[in-house]
From TrEMBL:
It comes from Amazonocrinis nigriterrae CENA67. Pfam families: adh_short (PF00106). The keyword Protease does not apply. Belongs to the short-chain dehydrogenases/reductases (SDR) family. It comes from the Bacteria. CDD domains: SDR_c. This is SDR family oxidoreductase.
Length: 234
């Protein structure tokens, strides 16, 4: 990871902050993005290196363009993008309001589309890069109460695989992560009854992402699937 420039989107979240802490001692240069500037500054202040923080709402493509521009202005390149921003609305299908569906599609699908698209354009110029999209198992399997969330996450898989096809000749790798339940603030506002003690830790997710990023150059970990033993999807 020495000399790599890594953009972590959703850096203040459970998964994003665990990954950021792990990356902070690897020699990588870090660009951290999420909406809340105070939480970004708090995280940055805990790290043993100087990082670039860029408050960004990924539902706004112009803010995403600014994030990428600022990363390039500061570090000259982007080697890695990790999309770890997102939100969950889990409720019965007939309680899903249009605003719920908009939120799921705007943040989870369109937000990660914009960041992937903008970072990939920079990577394409240098014919090198790695994009990690934290999808979740509900981008691959179905679950009751997850219609809106799952629609957004299946969409992430769809565009990621299409862009991976377009970009493989430019040396750009994609890794999709299908994690099961991870005990993070994601669940704070989810009304579904879940047992967080049985979930995976954010560090498990961060370790998996780190594995993908540090695999030998010719290796492409295309998909990583980790489930808690209490809730297995095959
Ligand atoms: N937790 C799980 O069980 C689980 C399992 C599988 C997959 N996932 C996926 O993993 C990703 C991260 O989840 P997590 O558990 O780390 O969630 P989390 O702890 O709630 O963190 C979410 C992060 O996304 C950021 N964010 C939310 N909306 C944003 C927006 N519009 N623009 C920019 N940043 C935004 C948040 O910061 P701000 O609020 O400051 O913007 C925060 O940094 C999500 O895509 C989630 O769907 C989670």
């Amino acid at each position: 990871m020495q000399d790599k420039v890594v953009v972590v989107v959703g850096a203040t979240g459970g998964i994003g902050s665990a990954l950021t802490r792990k990356l902070a001692s690897t020699g990588a240069s870090l660009v951290l993005a999420a909406r809340d500037s105070t939480r970004l500054a708090t995280l940055a202040g805990e790290l043993p290196l100087k990082v670039l923080t860029v408050p960004t709402d990924i539902t706004d493509s112009q803010q995403v363009d600014t994030l990428i521009e600022k990363a390039i202005a500061e570090f000259g390149q982007i080697d890695i993008l990790v999309n770890a921003a997102g939100a969950g609305i889990l409720k019965p299908y007939n309680s899903v309001e249009p605003a719920d569906l908009d939120k799921m599609l705007d943040v989870n699908l369109k937000g990660s589309f914009y960041t992937t698209q903008a970072a990939a354009e920079e990577m394409q110029k240098r014919k090198s890069g790695h994009i990690c999209n934290v999808v979740g198992i509900l981008g691959k399997h179905s679950m009751a109460m997850a219609a809106a969330y799952s629609a957004s996450k299946f969409g992430v898989v769809g565009f990621s695989k299409c862009m991976a096809e377009e970009l493989k000749r430019f040396g750009i790798k994609f890794t999709l992560f299908y994690f099961g339940g991870i005990d993070s603030p994601f669940w704070d506002n989810v009304s579904l009854k879940v047992d967080r003690k049985k979930m995976l830790s954010p560090e498990t997710a961060a370790n998996a992402i780190f594995y993908a990023l540090s695999a030998e150059p010719q290796a492409v970990p295309m998909e990583i699937n980790i489930q808690p033993d209490s809730h297995l999807f095959f």
